[in-house]
Amino acid sequence: xxxxxxxxxxxxxxxxxxxxxxxxxxxxxxxxxxxxxxxxxxxxxxxxxxxxxxxxxxxxxxxxxxxxxxxxxxxxxxxxxxxxxxxxxxxxxxxxxxxxxxxxxxxxxxxxxxxxxxxxxxxxxxxxxxxxxxxxxxxxxxxxxxxxxxxxxxxxxxxxxxxxxxxxxxxxxxxxxxxxxxxxxxxxxxxxxxxxxxxxxxxxxxxxxxxxxxxxxxxxxxxxxxxxxxxxxxxxxxxxxxxxxxxxxxxxxxxxxxxxxxxxxxxxxxxxxxxxxxxxxxxxxxxxxxxxxxxxxxxxxxxxxxxxxxxxxxxxxxxxxxxxxxxxxxxxxxxxxxxxxxxxxxxxxxxxxxxxxxxxxxxxxxxxxxxxxxxxxxxxxx
Length: 382
Known about the structure:
The chain is built from 15 helices and 13 strands. With 382 residues, it is α/β, with parallel strands linked by helices. The protein has two domains: 9-166 and 367-381, 3-Layer(aba) Sandwich (Rossmann fold), CATH 3.40.50.2000; 190-362, Rossmann fold, CATH 3.40.50. The model is unreliable at 1-6 and 174-182 (pLDDT under 50).
């Protein structure tokens, strides 16, 4: 493999919190291979800490759902203009796109016109919904690095250059082998609440999750509840919601890393997202919940084809091993019922823990960032 010339620059776009973290590890690994690389683009604090010149904050772009886009439409359009202008003026040697498909595929089209190679890391879930986007990917992207074991076959079927690199979560220190026993619920069980990585998700889910916690506490009097604070969510928002909840005004906010949060938790109530995979790798039992606007939900139901599960844990497992509550089923009573049924059946908990730890084997081996860095360097050399 040839060496990259000095002072090559790379543009990177990560519009989500998890992508920001995975992107930062990729940047670190690429710099280990060439310390002279210059990175710039769109992202958050993790990329910024790794020395990436952030020229547009990803927090202004992040949304989930279709109708939820409208309040941020102005920022999204501005972000598109900034990204396209950067491509045209700085002409990077490589464009790395991380997830965030609707935005990133627009930018990929501009890069294609400018003959800038494009690497898509953590690809759009076109195998699940809006499969028509695969045509755009084939036209605009030079290589796709996928992180779920079943994704590579889909892209190969469409003759798109693809590499299964494994899941970057496995590179985290907390991805331990799960040899410890399921934490006890007999003394003072700690139940973790993971309300999401965006302000909108927290506003929709946390009040219901706190009411569910109160229902659980009526049956498990010594239970303690901790609320995870994602780095992309305002602490003041979480604390205000907790304070305004008359039933659970003293739930503890945990602003530290997810690793420590999961080590404390005997069980978690989690909003659907990457964090559910982190819990699975750590062997922590859970229930997955999610609500969006009804219009977004109906449109998603129309667009999604042949997918029985929403939670990444169940998608990777290929079967339902973790309960999912969606839309009208996301109520304090139903959440509490599911949690109580699970924590009162110790045999079932042990079985679930074993299945969750099996997810780690399914996801592959460590070294995702290293593999993606090799692909990136190769694209820059060609």
